Each structure stands twice: as structure tokens, then as C-alpha cells.
Amino acid sequence: VAEYDLDVHVVDTYNSSWSCSSRVLVTLLDINDSPPKFILSNLSASLPENSKVGAVVTLVHAVDSDIGMNSKLRYSLTDSAKGMFSIVSNTGLVRLAKKLDRELQERYTLVVRARDEGSPPLSSTAPLVVRVLDVNDNPPVFVKNVYSVEVAESAPLDTDILRVEAYS
Q1: Read out DSSP for 128-148?
Q2: What is the CATH class of 37-133?
């Protein structure tokens, strides 16, 4: 809210000896005419697939050039990837809501909304890409369940006798 303190002096043009003065306080009230803007237009984060539920993913931040309630922001996820992520509405802190598995999905694209508390409320959105980092959490598995080989008794030392395949 901007305030201006003015001294007003009025003089009668017919009789200049008639005049008066007054002090006037002018208060300008803000209208909600500026939508929130995200500091970064393309948001991204990454976290290991073994992160605990509740782990911090990132902190998003938007600004609103209005003042007062017109600039107070609330954050939400319009697409939380089927509940995989959550956001703290008054801070923009994005958290992991469900367990990750990179072998099932290695990237999530969320939509973050910043909405002001003006009347009418204004909002904007920004994409948030979350990359899941691989952790070696799967034991190797052999291609075949059983391997068998016959070795000649006279085979020299260090002879390759069997090659097995495994994947993880």
C-alpha cells in the first residue's frame, strides 16, 4: 500500500483573500493484476531410487509483484504423477510421497502451480522434471538355472571350461 501525504491550498479566483488549506492523505490500494511468476521456467531435480518416503526432492519458488494478500502464494501439484510426490503449500517444498523404482520409471514430469490469494486469485504453472538415479539394488540373475560341463582329466591348468551369462 502506497501512501501520499499532500498539502492542498485553495484560493478563490474572485476574491484572493479567501483561501483555505488542508492536509490530505491519499492511500493507493493494490489490485490483483500480476500473476505469480516462477523464478526458473524449467524446473528439474534428481534423487536416488532408494530415497526414503518423505525425502526432499526440491524447493520451488515463484514471486508476485503485487502486495499484501495479492502477493501471498500457495503451491500445489496439478499432476503429482499418481501421488508419487507432494508439495508443502505454503513453502513450495516438494517431497517424495511413495517409494521409487528406477527399473519401473526413470523420469517423472510434474506440473507445479503457484496461486496468489488475491481476489480474483491468479496463478501460473511450471513443469518439474524429476529424474530417478539408479542404485545397484538388483542382484545378478543367471540366464540359465543349471549349468553343467565335462572336463577332461588331462586338461591343462587355467583352461576355460565354461562361460556363464548373468544380468542384473
Answers
A1: EEEEEEP---S--EESSS---
A2: mainly beta
Q: Which of 128, 127, 124, 115 is nearest to 57 (CA)?
A: 128
| Residue ranges with strand state E in 66-142 | 73-79, 85-87, 93-96, 107-116, 123-133, 141-142
Q: CA 62, 63, 68 angle in degrees (round to 5)?
A: 130
Cell of residue 69, nine digits? 494478500
pLDDT in tens, the chain (168 residues): 678 999 999 998 888 789 999 999 999 888 999 999 999 988 999 999 999 999 999 999 999 999 989 999 999 999 878 899 999 999 999 999 999 999 899 999 999 999 999 999 999 999 999 999 998 877 888 999 998 888 888 988 998 899 999 887
Rounded distance between C-alpha atoms, residue 98 and residue 38, angstroms: 26
Instruction: Give which of 129, 132, 164 is closest to 145, Cα–Cα.
Output: 164
Grid coordinates representing 65?
Answer: 509483484
Instruction: Enumerate the H helices of the chain as residue ranges.
Output: none
| Kind of pairing between the strands at 123-133 and 43-48 | parallel
Task: Check: CB of residue 162 under 8 Å from CB of residue 100.
Answer: no
pTM of the model: 0.72
Neighbours of 125 (CB within 10 A): 17
